[in-house]
Task: structure prediction
Amino acid sequence: MDEILKIKANDLRSKICSGEVKSLNIVKACVTRIKKTDSKIRSFLKLNENKLLEQEATCSDKKIESGKKCGSLEGIPIGIKDNIMMKGESMTSASKYLENYISPYDATVIEKLKKAGAIFIGRTNMDEFAMGGSTETSAYQKTTNPWSLEHIPGGSSGGSAAAVSMGMVPFALGSDTGGSVRQPASFCGIVGYKPSYGLISRYGVCALASSFDQVGTLSKNVKDSALLASIVMGKDYKDPVCEPREQIDCISYIDDNLEVLKSVKVGIPRQLFNYKMDTEISENFNKAVDKFKFLSVKIVEVDIPSYKYIPALYKIIMCAEVSANIATFDGIRYGYRALNAENLDDEYAKSRAESLGYEVKKRILFGTYVLGAKNYYRCYHQAQKVRTLLINQISDAYKKCDFIFSPATLQMPVKFGETLSEECDVFLIAANLAGLPGITVPYNFTNSSMPVGMHFMGSRFSDVKLFQIANAFEKISDFDLNKYPEL
Amino acid sequence: MKELDTIAFFSRIKISEREKKKYLEDLSEMFDYIEILQEPDVASLEPTTHVTKLRNVWREDIVKSCPKEIVDMMLNSSPEREKTFYKVKKIISD
Result:
């Protein structure tokens, strides 16, 4: 592996700006790495044309040489999940339904990245419409876990996670509705960050469940996620739930001093011990807690009894929102249209049946059921009330602590074809249900050299503090950030 | 089975007889979730639809022109177009 690919994005930024490293060399190294390894990893659905990439990189280099003002990510390559629109580019969301779709405009996050001078390497694979936790529901290809090709990379942002983990790009964007950035990040041994709900615009991002969806970042270390988040966050009138907040330079608040650990209270939910957890995950979690204690970090136990409702709560509300969002896919203005339909109703039904995958259809069916006039109050309305209960209990927990700490997942990645338990991602999903920021940080490797990650969940809009503690935690972890998977 | 047909109709998804069995199996698992959520007493709580306050974003009701390039891009993504229109099946019966 080319050493240039081991340079983290924050360092690349200063090295490119000072002229020490050429953007063209990085881009060439990324493309070479992808060509060499992606036939086995299959993280990219589409790569941008080599010639175009080199032109853009050269343009960035020239800008720097001539002393022109350059963007905050000038000449740095990035991967984009295939559910984020880029003007004039295809966007499939890994579905056959959108096979021939060309985005007519840029998502707000893309607009910001373009302004910052980032170089878009390509579009990464995902579960179809981000529905899944393994990237296996993609209609196009299966992405593998770079640390073990027999195992899933997680999902739904599995392509982004695998590409960053493999060193094909320094960072990538994903989307997180129920852990879809953080879970694959943890399975692939990288950092995954989901912001507080409303911090990053979703304009131009294919919707899954609108009251949970957020764009998130995947990177090798915490600072690179903080850098990327700083660029893409901030108010946007085009997304009605986007908070009217200014962009924050998160990096400037992060220092490598471990003192920050002494000023925070870390909460551990009592409910965590009720779950069945893979042995190596619980061993590493206990080790991390011991390390906290050794460093005089204050640890408190918090009580959130409603954690047990999370899988049910999430499924009901998510499917309801899916059925409403995916209703726009009717084969009229864009997307797949079935031939030989008898009438308009038949055309809708056939178009959707022929172009959507099983998982997507199952969620639509269930969502339609829970929203039906007969079932609405007992199902959807009740779930929304239980959601309030959970949010109230989490708010109470934050009276005793600053962050809630847990393993990222309860299980290690499974082999293809096997399924993860419904409870595997509960600690990640809690953040989506309550609109809170969460970050997974790799902590160690298991005996079989698979990465294990931990998760911090902060209170609403404590994102900067979350980066601070995650960065400190990264410093005390046993994970080697300079280790990359070998094929 | 009849209920599945009704849901499928409202979902505008055609499902084959062969698929029905699998959907019924998988959906019955999902129905367990509904029962689980009947357990807590939440009668006094307000439902949460969003964690943030949704605001209306207003603008003047003025039609802005759209560049031809973008109009074409959008029309070309449609399954069938005719000039500057989307072509769809007849929706009014004779």
The CA atoms of residues 32 and 54 of chain B lie 32 Å apart.
